[in-house]
């Protein structure tokens, strides 16, 4: 639980890949491979091309509890996000525990460097 966590991948000034916004970038650089709605995952997004100077953000949204300002289910979910590249696992991010929130800002990428964000909030 929660049943429906949605993965989002945003290129600043470019695309927003998610179940709702765009399942594939117009230029084909990224796409939503799988949108899971039964709570078992995984959801996957593939980004084939990364702009050298572009900024990217990855976040998870708790769609199941989107209308609850006091929701803690996301923090209790044990959700993880894995980043693969160059044919190997590069990073594993685990949800911060014990805080309310329906959005988990997981990581950013800028200049090819992956940075951990790890914040939970209500929007």
Describe the protein's architecture and organization.
With 123 residues, the chain is mainly beta. 3% of the residues lie in helices and 46% in strands. It is built from 1 helix and 9 strands. The strands form 3 sheets. The protein has a 5-stranded antiparallel β-sheet with strand order 2-1-5-8-9. The protein has a two-stranded antiparallel ribbon with strand order 3-4. β6 and β7 form a beta hairpin. The radius of gyration is 14 Å and the shape is globular.
Write a short abstract of this structure.
This protein is mainly β and 123 residues long.
Keywords:
mainly beta; five-stranded antiparallel beta sheet; 1 helix; globular
Cα-atom radius of gyration: 14 Å
Strand content: over 45%
Number of strand segments:
9
Uncertain spans? none
C-alpha end-to-end distance: 19 Å
How helical, in percent, are the residues? under 10%
Shape: globular
In sequence order, what are the helices and strands, one letter per element? EEEEEHEEEE
Q: In which order are the strands of the major sheet placed? A: 2-1-5-8-9
The chain-level structural class is mainly beta
């Amino acid at each position: 639980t929660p049943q429906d966590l949605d993965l989002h991948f945003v290129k600043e000034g470019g695309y927003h890949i998610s179940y709702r916004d765009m399942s594939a970038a117009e230029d084909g650089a990224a796409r939503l491979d799988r949108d899971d709605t039964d709570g078992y995952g995984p959801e996957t997004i593939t980004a084939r091309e990364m702009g050298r100077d572009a900024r990217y953000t990855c976040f998870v949204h708790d769609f199941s509890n989107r209308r609850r300002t006091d929701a803690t289910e996301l923090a209790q979910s044990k959700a993880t996000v894995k980043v693969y590249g160059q044919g190997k696992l590069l990073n594993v991010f685990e949800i911060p525990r014990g805080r309310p929130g329906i959005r988990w800002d997981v990581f950013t990428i800028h200049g090819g460097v992956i940075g951990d964000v790890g914040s939970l909030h209500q929007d």
